[in-house]
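Priority: medium. Attachment 1 of 2:
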């Protein structure tokens, strides 16, 4: 089981979003540990180390100008 402490260890953020922990906990019994690890790795990468929980499109606005 993944805890908030575990998320802090792998996160660049001092306080990773608790909604991620809730989501992982909700699906944990449906998947094998390696599958959860894969999803967590992808989410960590895509969120900039669990810093962002929304898509950032600032570079797109700059390209459009």
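Attachment 2 of 2:
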């Amino acid at each position: 089981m993944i805890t908030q402490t575990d998320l802090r260890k792998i996160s660049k953020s001092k306080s990773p979003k608790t909604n991620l922990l809730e989501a992982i906990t909700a699906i944990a019994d449906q998947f094998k540990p390696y599958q959860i690890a894969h999803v967590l790795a992808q989410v960590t990468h895509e969120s900039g180390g669990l810093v962002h929980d929304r898509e950032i499109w600032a570079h797109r606005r700059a390209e459009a100008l």
